[in-house]
Structures are given as structure tokens and as C-alpha cells.
Write a structure and sequence with these properties.
This protein is an all-beta fold. The protein is built from no helices and 38 strands. The strands form nine sheets. Strands 1-2-27-26-25-24 form a six-stranded mixed β-sheet, with no helix packed on it. The chain has a four-stranded antiparallel β-sheet with strand order 3-30-29-28, with no helix packed on it.
């Protein structure tokens, strides 16, 4: 790791270092990707342009394209923001159609959830779910700026936000909540803030930020926000008073003068941002574990969305079907401790039968899933600490054997040929 020290305008920028952590993951598309959402440590989704929807059921090692049945726009559409409340139940926005859809079967079928009372809510950029029946939509009106709507158990309402520029480009691009505190970044110099669970929003000016791109709440006081200032960006935006005031964090500043396109934090306490230098066309990934010691790495494409599972298994998605992760797949799985399940599965690939041999008994018989997570009914023989699974009647392809033992879970990838 190479340390770089900067001194500018009397401020010493310390501990900014070049990291070597990110590796690319192959996915079955080259379309621009818009969002990534992990519903669990095994199941995740990626949205993108040209009706792109991808799904993983093995923690991100393999991704499969899904045809999203039920999204009927009448023209080619892009899938934007995603938010899932479980492995099966989630929502997506179709940004320029003024529509939001819900799935209850893991992304295969989608149902329109809009209400005629949404009226002038023409553009959808963000969604935040409290639970399956309570969520907030952020976007803009046809001839208005940022708007926020709430659906609470089927009752729709528009939230007052004191923000109106009559510019539909200044929409609500991302929302985050922590208890009653909520922040909504708009594609402008203004952050929206609520302290009553989203019922009323104040307009907070964020000076020197260009336009905001993203926001994440770390705790009741600390938040970070991304912004794009047309090549004049310096440090990432930081608030230490619950989003009331914002300032650039100079310890994250570089002479790339980047636009910070997305922000996210992991359960382990690390914070991440995808950034881009308009002057050098360099894409960057930033990381800090304490807010003071920052590192970055050059990556091949702009990263526009980040999500994680476990303590610190992080993925980023961006242009041209670009997906990266910070973790070797040898340590990825349904749980961070899945190596606790000692199992031998053979032969793999297979043309017929698969033997599953264990050191300890399972909680239940193995479950076989296809590459979309659908349970496949195959003949299974239980021989104590071993199982024999017949794939003879299964079509050729990729399958996963799901094992549960002593509170741990593990997926074993099988190729039938």
C-alpha cells in the first residue's frame, strides 16, 4: 500500500493511500447497471438499462439474467432503484415511466403498485421500504422538482418538503432512514431532512456541492453524501449533526477532484464511495474504516451503486455491465462461517447422480435450487451422513445444493451436463 501525503491551502491530507482490493465479477450483460441489492447473504439482485435484471443465489459468485414478467411499459425501459425486504419480496422503479413494481416470487413476476392519487409524480428515482406494506418513493413531478410519496398499508400520501424549483431534473435520487431520522439527496444543492419518520421534510442547503448524488446515514449524528461538482469536487461530504450541516471531509480529498457517485456503509463499520474524475476519466473506489484513514483504488468503470452483506462483503456495479467485489470467493457463501459445514460433493460436474458426504448430520435433507433460486424436486436417498441425489431427469445447467447444519447454511454449486 502506497501512502500519499498532500498539503494544500494549509491543510495536510494524510493517510490517503492506494489500495489493491477490488476484482471484477463476470455477469451476463454489458448494459449500464443502475443498482445492486442483497436481500440476504445468498440472494442478491442487480438492475440495469434495457430491461436488465440479474439475480444471484450464491452470494454473488454467479449471476443469472431474469425476464421480469409483468412490467408492461409499451417501450424499452430501464430498471432503476431496487429495494428488497426479503429474498422473495422487493420493489423496483422504472425511472422515466412514473411506475413502481413489486415482486413476491424473487423477481420473476412483477405487479404495478401505483395509485391514481399519485397524480403528477412522473419520475421515479428512489425507493426506501420500511416493510412490505410501508415504503417511500422519491422522484419528481412532470413540471416540479423533488417529490416524496408514502404508501402506508395501501394509503398513499404526498409528503411536504418545502422544496420546489419547477425543474424535474432536480429529483430525489436517494433516501435513507435511521429510526425517525431520514435524509433525501436531491439532484441539486439541497438535502431534504425529516425527524418524524418521513411525514414532514425540511430543505437543507448544501453549499459547494454541485448536485447531490447519494446519501447514507451511519448513526444518529454521522452521515455521508456524494456529489458531482463538475470536476471541482474535493473531499466527500460529511455531516456530524444528523444532517443539519455539511462540509467536505478533507482527509478524503485527492487531486483527481472526483465526483462521488454513490455512498454506502457495511455492517462492519467500513464506508465506501464510487467516484469519477471528469478531468482524467479515472474511476475510483474509496474506503475508510474510521473516517480518517482513507484509501482508494482505480477501477475500470464508473461505480454508481454499492451494497454489502455479512460484515464486509461488498459489491459495486456500474457502466458496461461492470461488477466488482472486495472479497475472494473462497470466503463467500451463505454465512461468513460456512466453512463450519465440512462436506464432500462428487462428482462435479455430473451427468447423473451426486454424492453428498458429511462429517456431522444435517438439520434437514438437502434442498436443490436452480440458478434462479427455485426449489427443484429431485430423488434423494438418505444414508445417514451421506445423501445420493439423482440429477438424471434435470436439464443440463447450474444447480445449488442447500445445506443446513448447526445454525449454519451453505450452498454447493453443481453443474449438470
Amino acid at each position: 500500500m502506497k501512502n500519499i501525503l498532500f498539503t494544500i491551502l494549509g491543510a495536510t491530507l494524510v493517510n490517503l493511500s492506494v489500495a489493491q482490493t477490488w476484482t471484477q465479477i463476470s455477469v451476463p450483460t454489458t448494459n449500464h447497471l443502475n443498482d445492486i441489492e442483497f436481500a440476504s447473504a445468498s440472494v442478491g439482485y442487480i438492475s440495469g438499462d434495457n430491461e436488465t435484471l440479474l439475480k444471484t443465489i450464491d452470494g454473488g459468485e454467479n449471476w443469472t439474467a431474469i425476464t421480469p414478467n409483468g412490467i408492461n411499459i409499451g417501450f424499452a425501459y430501464n430498471i432503476g432503484d431496487l429495494d428488497f425486504v426479503s429474498e422473495l419480496i422487493g420493489f423496483c422503479n422504472i425511472p422515466n415511466s412514473g411506475r413502481t413494481y413489486k415482486t413476491i416470487d424473487g423477481g420473476i413476476n412483477w405487479t404495478l403498485v401505483d395509485d391514481p392519487e399519485l397524480g403528477n409524480f412522473c419520475y421515479r428515482s428512489s425507493i426506501f421500504t420500511m416493510d412490505e406494506n410501508h415504503y417511500f418513493l422519491g422522484g419528481a413531478g412532470c413540471f416540479q422538482s423533488g417529490m416524496i410519496k408514502e404508501n402506508n398499508n395501501g394509503t398513499w400520501s404526498e409528503k411536504p418538503d418545502n422544496f420546489e424549483t419547477f425543474n424535474a431534473d432536480q429529483d430525489v435520487v436517494q433516501m435513507d432512514f435511521l429510526n425517525q431520522l431520514g435524509l433525501a439527496a436531491t439532484n441539486s444543492k439541497y438535502m431534504l431532512r425529516t425527524i418524524d419518520g418521513g411525514q414532514n421534510w425540511d430543505t437543507i442547503p448544501v453549499e459547494g456541492s454541485g448536485v447531490l448524488t447519494s446519501v447514507v446515514i451511519v448513526d444518529a449524528m454521522l452521515s455521508y453524501a456524494g456529489y458531482d461538482d463538475n470536476g471541482a469536487g474535493f473531499g466527500i461530504l460529511k455531516s456530524v449533526d444528523g444532517g443539519l450541516t455539511w462540509a467536505q471531509e478533507l482527509s478524503s480529498a485527492t487531486f483527481y477532484y472526483p465526483a462521488y457517485l454513490c455512498v454506502a456503509n457495511s455492517a462492519g463499520g467500513d464506508f465506501y464511495s464510487g467516484a469519477y474524475s471528469s478531468s482524467s476519466t479515472t474511476a475510483l473506489m474509496f474506503e475508510t474504516s474510521d473516517g480518517l484513514n482513507w484509501s482508494y483504488e482505480e477501477v475500470d468503470e464508473k461505480i454508481v451503486a454499492i451494497d454489502s452483506y455479512g460484515t464486509d462483503v461488498v459489491f459495486g456495479v456500474g457502466e458496461n455491465g461492470y461488477v466488482i467485489t472486495n472479497t475472494d470467493f473462497g470466503s463467500l457463501g451463505l454465512t461468513e462461517a460456512n466453512e463450519e459445514i465440512n462436506v464432500n460433493v462428487y462428482p462435479n460436474p455430473t451427468t447423473n447422480k451426486v454424492q453428498v458426504s458429511l462429517e456431522k448430520p444435517l438439520e434437514d435433507i438437502p434442498v436443490v435450487l436452480d440458478n434462479l433460486g427455485k426449489v427443484i424436486d429431485l430423488p434423494i436417498e438418505n444414508n445417514g451422513l451421506s445423501y445420493e441425489l439423482s440429477f438424471l431427469s434435470a436439464p443440463n445447467g447450474i444447480y445449488f445444493i442447500k445445506l443446513k447444519q448447526n445454525g449454519f447454511e451453505k450452498n454447493v454449486r453443481i453443474i449438470k451436463q
